[in-house]
Amino acid sequence: MRDESIFDLDELNEECGVFGIIGHADAAQLTYYGLHALQHRGQESAGIVTTDGTKFSVGRGTGLVTEVFNNNNIKQLHGATGIGHVRYSTTGGTGLANAQPLVFNYAKGELAIATNGNLVNAKKLRRELEESGSIFQTTTDTEVIAHLIARSAAPNLESAVKEALNCVVGAYALLIMTNDSLIVAQDPHGLRPLSMAKMGEATVFSSETCAFDVIGAEFVRDIEPGEMLIFDASGIRTTTFAPKAERAICSFEHVYFARPDSNVGGINVHAARKRMGRILAEEAPVEADVVTGVPDSSISAAIGFAEATGIPYELGLIKNRYVGRTFIQPSQELREQGVKMKLSAVRGVVSGKRVVMVDDSIVRGTTSRRIINMLREAGATEVHVRISSPPVKNPCFYGIDTPDRDQLIAANKTVEEIRQEIGADTLSFISVEGMLNAIGRPPGERNRGHCIACFTGAYPTVIEDELVLEGAKK
Ligand code: SF4
After folding, report:
1. Is residue 210 among the annotated active site residues?
2. Predicted confidence (pLDDT) per residue in 441-471, tens digit
3. Number of other residues whose CB lies within 10 A of the CB of residue 179
4. Distance of CA 356 to the CA centre of its chain
5. Spatial distance between the Cα atoms of 177 and 152, rounded to a whole number of angstroms
6. Rounded CA gap, 18 and 66, in Å?
7. How far is 339 from 295, CA to CA, in rounded Å?
8. 22 lines ligand 1 (CB under 6 A)
9. 454 in ligand 1 pocket by Cβ < 6 Å?
10. 251 lines ligand 1 (CB under 6 A)
């Protein structure tokens, strides 16, 4: 969870975060606070839609939550029910048109929809819908779900949503709001996190539990894979919309994406990262003088590595916090300069020292090479790199922005070749088993209930879209 991640194309990026609340007079403001806590999951756009029971109020814009909303416009969002979204786009492109929640007028009234995730058959469904007359306003996967709902002949919204969700394949944590109902659903594999909390009489939903802590809501439970919750005039009910599938929570949520103070699948992210560091130390010990983590997401794992080895943890790398949104650097050359802008090595800590540098992942390898150079320029005599995820060899199709396979260094080189390319003295990755042990879900489910496809290539769903498949073949 590096908050500058959008500015660095050599990292994996989360796509979105969703937040919803029903039954609170300050729905808009609480959604604002919730989205602010989820900002690390998307910085391109933010949106809130509320309802007072008769009509929607809509606020959306490009930029950070604090750039889109202010005291004045948040007061214009009326009602006790609201859903919100922060977006980092992998599919659908940037821009206000794609900012969520999307709002539609359909035969039965207004409908707002916000999702976190990616569908692997969206292009196919979109083509079919367009061929039969649907006109799309955006290029997002989310709109595909909205069209499927709008076209359904089902007698009520609940049945229409069920029907739509049985057509789509992929990852989604989904919030749908009308003027008299809220529907919450999780994909059949539970790929993206979605949790529920209570705040007095109000019920709250969030991609991550850190948002509950911010607003003082009390965690109740995670939404189950394939579960759908309906809040409407007849009360609250839960149902399943799809046959039970293998649970496959994205393991990268624990490695990198989620905030350290969140619990994903009931397991605290910081604690899991520390265990990753400990296991990495057992799997790949090394003699060194200091351990440092690449800020911010690798610090927990670095602390775990230091604790397990007895090598002191030090702040050998400092993040420059005020690198702004203008640092979007498309070219390789500028990317490499960008790392320098964002991180500094602390000479007084690393000079003359053998350094263990713990990082959460290697994507293309360019960032690692720059950071290692930086440590050496600051006087480190040795740089031993330890990575708290297994080698990323396959693209993600479930809402994480990964490069195509030909750009993933671990898909094309051995660990020794990567070590040479990034200029480390030694390089080790945690094993898949080690990572799953560190996260610590109980045994019994395949991969302990996690998706590990970007490491192994075994995707939990079929991958239908031909464009998606092209990416995988590269
Ligand atoms: S492929 Fe990787 S990043 Fe994507 S959902 Fe699975 S574990 Fe997460």
Report:
1. no
2. 999 999 999 999 999 999 999 887 655 555 4
3. 16
4. 27
5. 17
6. 16
7. 12
8. no
9. yes
10. yes
